[in-house]
Write a structure and sequence with these properties.
Blueprint (H helix, E strand, L loop, with lengths): L20 H9 L5 E3 L3 H10 L4 E6 L13 E5 L12 E3 L10 H12 L4 E11 L2 E10 L3 H10 L1 E2 L2 H8 L9 E6 L11 E5 L4 E5 L4 H18 L2 E12 L5 E7 L6 H6 L8 E5 L2 E5 L5 E3 L4 E4 L13 E5 L2 E4 L5 E4 L9 E4 L10 E2 L5 E6 L7 E4 L3 H8 L2 E3 L15 E3 L11 H14 L3 E6 L2 E2 L2 E2 L2 H12 L6 E3 L2 E6 L12 H21 L11 H18 L1
Parallel strand pairs: 1-5, 3-17, 4-9, 6-8, 8-10, 12-22, 22-26
Antiparallel strand pairs: 2-3, 5-6, 5-7, 9-10, 11-12, 11-13, 11-14, 14-15, 15-21, 16-20, 17-20, 18-19, 23-26, 23-30, 24-25, 27-28, 29-30
Length: 554
């Protein structure tokens, strides 16, 4: 088996590195008399369908029996209140913790004690869909949140007979199982936004006072990505697909971006069926440092509903929906009101059938990585040479937030922010990710590009343009030109989006954007005692670009 669920008696001691105080607290709670085990997806569906807060629509689930659901299963709706996005401000990592004034152990023990006064459910999933990487995961949620449990078992892989057999044959790792405890009803005066408490070194987390399903999904991925990182994989918050070309060769690409950047659009696009395409996943996967192969972590998709009106054919693949409306159609059926009419960030868990070309493992190495940015100083497509520049620009990925996040009211959603490798869920030092990606570029001869899916020259870069540029690359029809004086950068000309390197205002903007990246790198040298500091070569590479621009502007 992959992860460790049981221990020899002589190994249950304080020298065992799998145990920690937080892990023991959380795992212990799973065995209480107030906790009922839910073993199958069908059982979870019935619980969710009958829960007081659930709306059972009249929309049938597509091929329910193939998913392990009742033949008459319907799409279920659940709305979680005022907060409809992830609250990053609630996250605390024990391995990074510098707030000595707060005793999180006491808070967690008290939360677990108070939880004993109500009924809970627990269930099991597998995270990682190939025998080379499969981790056993356990989740515990209170009665009243049956829809949360059901969505969780849909999003990850419930342990059925097929996956139990796969798991038995999977590669073993010296890692304890994942344990995720959740009490959305918890409250504490010191944590008005809730508390997402992680002990990533020991594969355990507690989600307290938070009801948005994305918190549970990303908490699990945070732990799984950390396990993968410790075991010679590169952890990826992005989408991956593989094209089959006319000569039967393959081109495998990954696109990294925050929610709302175009990551799913790029990954799931069919390109007018010009190529046979395999999709690994649009959100979470890992890449082997050893051979460059890739593994998906989840079978389903947690997608925004804003692009799917009720008439869309994609609705048929919905399994559950969160934070959406319901109305009656002219056939007297309860149906969905999507497109974020009710509120921002309406969501759905979609089945794997949404991509009939879905695979869980790609054995071929990746050919190219695309950093998706919303930096208006960059043309629609930029190529980065070598291994240092691709890693530096990945570590300083400039983008914008979306309604997927529960932001402070004072934060402007249109502000440019830097989110390294488009992964705000990293629980280990940023410098380690930097070196992991740099190794990928150098060892496996991977190309690197930046896709600007925002605005350039005050013109929106449309999805149609972005997809056409990707097609030129995979067909080897792209002819790049130098990015002005910047060594190691080139761009693909696009009509109406040409950079003018003689325009002083534009060159000043380009310099400002590079300075923003350098400032970010320098800040990381001191914040949190340098936990996320980058190698010196990162700041040197960005400094060289800035000096080149300064010289050019004289």
């Amino acid at each position: 088996m992959s992860s460790i669920s049981q221990f020899r008696v002589e190994d249950i001691n304080q020298q065992n590195p799998i145990f920690s105080d937080f892990r023991v607290m959380v795992e212990t709670a799973f065995y209480g008399n107030h906790v009922k085990k839910v073993s199958t997806l069908e059982e979870a569906y019935v619980l969710a369908k009958d829960a007081p807060g659930t709306i059972v629509t009249d929309l049938p689930v597509y091929q329910p029996e193939e998913l392990g659901l009742p033949s008459d299963a319907k799409i279920l709706v659940d709305n979680c209140g005022g907060i409809v996005g992830r609250t990053s401000a609630a996250r605390r990592f024990i391995n990074q913790q510098t707030e000595t004034s707060t005793n999180y152990g006491v808070i967690l023990r008290e939360a677990l004690f108070q939880a004993e006064k109500k009924a809970f459910y627990r269930s099991r999933v597998v995270v990682g869909l190939d025998e080379d990487f499969m981790i056993n995961g356990h989740v515990m949620v209170p009665e009243g949140y049956e829809q949360m449990l059901y969505s969780y078992l849909l999003n990850f892989q419930v342990v059925n007979e097929e996956y139990q057999n796969k798991y038995q044959q999977s590669k073993p790792y010296a890692e304890g199982d994942i344990f995720l405890f959740a009490d959305p009803d918890w409250s504490h005066p010191d944590f008005p936004l809730g508390l997402a408490l992680f002990d990533p070194d020991h594969n355990v987390a507690a989600i307290l006072g938070l009801r948005y399903f994305g918190e549970f999904k990303k908490a699990t991925l945070t732990l799984a990505w950390t396990i993968a990182h410790r075991n010679n994989f590169v952890s990826c918050h992005g989408g991956m697909k593989q094209f089959e070309l006319e000569d039967k060769s393959h081109y495998t690409m990954a696109a990294f971006g925050l929610s709302g950047s175009g990551k799913s659009t790029i990954t799931l696009a069919n390109h007018q069926h010009k190529y046979p395409i395999k999709v690994l996943h649009d959100d979470a996967f890992v890449i082997s440092k050893k051979d460059g192969s890739s593994i998906a972590l989840e079978p389903a998709y947690f997608d925004k509903t804003q692009d799917y009106p009720m008439a869309s054919q994609d609705i048929q693949y919905f399994l559950t929906a969160q934070n959406v409306g319901v109305t009656m159609d002219n056939n007297n059926r309860k149906v969905l009101v999507t497109e974020d009419i009710r509120n921002g960030n309406g969501r759905t868990v979609k089945s794997r059938f949404a991509t009939p070309n879905r695979v869980n493992h790609l054995s071929e190495k990746i050919d190219a990585i695309f950093w998706i940015m919303k930096d208006d100083s960059l043309p629609p497509l930029v190529k980065l040479e070598g291994d240092v520049l691709p890693a530096v620009f990945g570590a300083t990925l400039a983008t914008k937030r979306s309604t997927a996040e529960n932001l402070d009211p004072n934060v402007k959603i249109d502000n440019l922010v830097i989110e390294p490798f488009a992964n705000p869920f990293r629980a280990y030092p940023l410098g380690e990710d930097y070196l992991s990606f740099k190794t990928l570029f150098s060892t496996h001869d991977i190309d690197c590009y930046i896709l600007n899916t925002g605005f350039y020259n005050d013109k929106k870069v449309t999805a149609k343009i972005t997809l056409s540029l990707i097609e030129k690359i995979i067909e080897n029809q792209a002819s790049f030109e130098p990015m002005g004086p910047l060594a190691g950068l080139s761009y693909l000309p696009v009509a109406g989006y040409e950079p003018d390197f003689n325009d002083k205002k534009y060159m000043e903007l380009l310099k400002v954007r590079m300075e923003t990246r350098l400032n970010f790198i320098r800040e990381k040298e001191t914040i949190n005692h340098g936990f996320d500091s980058l190698p010196t070569e990162a700041s040197l590479a960005m400094t060289r670009l800035i000096k080149t621009l300064e010289k050019y502007l004289r």
